[in-house]
Amino acid sequence: MKETPESTAPTGGMTQRLKYMQLVDFIISQIENDKLGINDRLPTLNQLTSQLKISKETALKGLTYLSEKGIIESEYRKGYYVKRLRQLQSYRVCLIFDKMNVLRDTVYQAFLETIKDHAEVEVFFHHHNFKVFEKLIEENLNNYTHFVVVTFFKENPSAILNKIPSHKRIVIDHREPGLHGDYTCIYQDHKSDIIESLTELLPRLDKYQRLVLLAPLEAFHAQDLIEGFTTFAKQYEKPHKVLHTINEASAKKGDAYITFSRYDQDDVDIIKIARKKKWKLGKDIGLLSYNDTAVKEVLEDGITVISTDFYKMGQEAARAILNRTPVMLRDPAKVIIRNSL
Predict the structure, then answer these.
(1) Hey, CA dihedral for 157, 158, 160, 161, is it positive or negative?
(2) Which phi and psi (to 5°) does residue 89 adopt?
(3) Higher per-residue confidence, 85 vs 182
(4) Could you tell me which residues come within 8 angstroms of residue 29 by beta carbon, excluding any fewer than 6 positions away?
């Protein structure tokens, strides 16, 4: 019996789906009837196409479907093996973070609370190592229904991200240029955020003689913040300076400092300097820090912060999967005013 080509099927995608689901049903029935067990190798691609009278393309679609659901997994140059006996959840999500800290944990917890028992979630970290990130994507393209990814690389990751089908691709925190298709992105706009936040804080900034942005050279979004900071300062004719580090020699009474160091080291250094010189935060000098934490709420009677809603970031990523609708959403920052400014 000759197979009907998918391209000529009168019902379009439906016939194609039925064809690859024929393979899916066959493999699942083999597992249910104990003809295939955990770690058993599946028949070869040629054997499956011959037995089921389907094309290799259709067979590969069926194998990809089973891989995404976690029922089988492929081993390079060896074939496909049974990984589990049944599908546990509707979705399998590969969550790739740059690192783990209190902010990423907030994203993670929000994602899990929103997606609940609809997905199996596996978490990986690339630590800004592009080769690690590339390997994670390329080796797992067929193993998950969705990829939720945080980037921040010196290298351009667009070519790797574009290997993920757009309907499976969710990029969070940073909007990467050069990506194709309708995909989900929940991102911060660091340049706009700092301009809007400093504009909101204008009445409090007026009492300071100079604005100082502490921009660590290793920070991946430093340039966006520098551009936004400079734009604001020039627009409102504010004396300003960009420094990469802070010490006693560069610190001046009457300055307002804006910090975003990775481990809040600049905040610690400024507080130490202020204590040594007997300067009072919020009066003699100002401190405005990026990203809120529980510690900043109580440290030195409260540190004023610019912070995006990381809980919302994780929540919206999960909703995009559950609603099966791609969204392009800016997660704007908000100012929380405390005694340091």
Answers:
(1) positive
(2) -135, 170
(3) 182
(4) none
Beta bridge partners of 287: 257
* The two three-digit tokens of residue 62, written as one number: 């069926």
pLDDT in tens, 268-296: 999 999 999 999 999 999 999 999 999 99
pLDDT tens digits along 79-135: 899 987 766 678 889 999 999 998 999 999 999 999 998 998 999 999 999 999 999
Q: At what angle do helices 56-68 and 45-52 cross, to 10 degrees?
A: 110
Would you say 220 and 265 are in contact if contact means Cβ atoms under 8 Å apart? no
Distance CA 330, CA 185 (A): 8
Could you tell me if 48 and 25 are in contact, meaning their C-beta atoms sit under 8 angstroms apart? Answer: no
**Hey, what long-range contacts does 49-57 have (CB within 8 A, 24 or more apart)?**
52/22, 52/23, 52/26, 53/1, 53/3, 54/3, 54/19, 54/20, 54/22, 54/23, 55/3, 55/6, 55/19, 57/6
User: How far apart are alpha carbons 190 and 196 in whole angstroms?
Assistant: 10
Ranges of H-type helices in 119-208? 130-140, 158-161, 190-200, 202-205
The CA R_g of the chain, rounded to the nearest whole Å, is 26
* Closest among 209, 282, 225, 218 to 259, alpha carbons compared: 225
Residue 1 pLDDT > 70? no
Q: Say how many C-beta atoms besides its own lie within 10 A of residue 115's C-beta.
A: 24
132: number of CA atoms within 13 Å, CB side?
12
Distances (CA, A) of 233 to 16, 150, 206, 255, 289: 59, 30, 12, 14, 17
How confident is the model at residue 168, as a pLDDT? 95
Cα separations in angstroms, 336 against 200, 296, 312: 11, 11, 17
